[in-house]
Amino acid sequence: MRLLLVEDDNHVAAALSAVLARHGFDVTHARSGEEALQALVPEGAGFGVVLLDLGLPDQDGYEVCGKIRKRTSTPVIMVTARSDVRSRIHGLNLGADDYVVKPYDTGELLARIHAVSRRTVHEDPAAGAESALHLGPVRIELPTRQVTVDGSVVQLTRKEFDLLALLAQRPGVVFRREQIISEVWRTSWEGTGRTLEVHVASLRAKLRQPALIETVRGVGYRLVAPAL
């Protein structure tokens, strides 16, 4: 697997690159946010995972994560010394797939890298469904992961698309919050509830269809198909 390591400390990067290489990774080292963004052109440039340190010299790591997510769906694992819950939620809301706090165990890091890569390849909520879904003015192209409203493309993060695709494949069916977190985020409900609420609010705003995703109080969410 090709891996993009974004780390401004050359000593840390060299040591980590050596470990990753021993485990079969083809590592490309970027020393700044801009260098990382250039390495991901075109459309991810074949990288399986981006390992993103947040302490970069030229740009805030959160900002870089947001830019990466706009360019590609390549999984991003944030690496930082910031361990507070708000920082983790902020990173996940920007489109990060996982968050590792320093100091970390190398075995845990390797396990997380393999986990996010497996999710991307094998566990897409859109997999195995029909190629396109139509919900009034909203069209969801599952193979290309493109969403349009009245013909105009809407830019969604990877998790926003996964959430929308999950709900849209079974309109009218209520999905429990715990079920959504399990299927889209591949984790447990604890500590992730606020992240789900933020993603639902973002989808409503971006799609300009506030009534499309209905909150079922005390249970979860369902997609309300527009009347024809």
TrEMBL record:
GO cellular component terms attached to this protein's record: cytosol; protein-DNA complex
Name this protein carries in UniProt: Sensory transduction protein RegX3
One record GO biological process: regulation of DNA-templated transcription
PANTHER family hit by this protein: REGULATOR OF RPOS, SENSORY TRANSDUCTION PROTEIN REGX3
Stored PROSITE patterns: OMPR_PHOB, RESPONSE_REGULATORY
Residues within the DNA-binding region(s): 130-225
MF terms (GO), sorted A to Z: phosphorelay response regulator activity; transcription cis-regulatory region binding
The keyword Cell cycle belongs to this UniProt entry's keyword annotation: no
Alphabetized UniProt keyword annotations: DNA-binding, Phosphoprotein, Transcription, Transcription regulation, Two-component regulatory system
